[in-house]
Amino acid sequence: MNIFVGNLAPETTEAELAELFKAFGEVKSAQVMRELFTGACRGFGFVEMPGKQHSLAAIRGLNGKELHGRPLKVHEARPKEGGRGPRRR
Q1: Is 90 exceeded by the pLDDT of residue 88?
Q2: Which of 29, 43, 47, 53 is the most buried (most CB within 10 A)?
Q3: How do residues 26-74 score in pLDDT, each as one tens digit?
Q4: SS3 letters for the chain?
Q5: What is the pTM of this model?
Q6: What value does the mean pLDDT take over residues 9-18?
Q7: How confident is the model at residue 2, as a pLDDT?
Q8: How far apart, in whole angstroms, are the C-alpha atoms of residue 89 and residue 86?
């Protein structure tokens, strides 16, 4: 299951995010979304966990938990609407 994690502090790392979720089960990947040119954290990321049971437990256990003084917003990731990115010519 792909899990959205919002309200991340600028100093949050992917390793930190993965470690946080490992308490609930196997983590396939953890990604902190960053600005293309500056590399600054965009304030959200995604964690992928293989099992639905572990994923739901992580969502329940981590939603609202503080990381770097900020309460996390954790829920199942929804598909991007519209599916449109920048136009390429």
Answers
A1: no
A2: 47
A3: 999 999 999 999 888 999 999 999 989 999 999 999 999 999 999 999 9
A4: CEEEEECCCCCCCHHHHHHHHHCCCCCCEEEEEECCCCCCEEEEEEEECCCHHHHHHHHHHHCCCEECCEECEEEECCCCCCCCCCCCC
A5: 0.86
A6: 95
A7: 96
A8: 10
The angle at the Cα of 73, spanning 47 to 15, to the nearest 5 degrees, equals 35
47-77 burial by CB neighbour count: b if 16+ within 10 A, else e? bbbeeeebbeebbeebeeeebeeeebebeee
d(CA 83, CA 33): 17
Q: How far apart are CA 66 and CA 25, in angstroms?
A: 20
- Quick one: tokens of 29? 């990947």
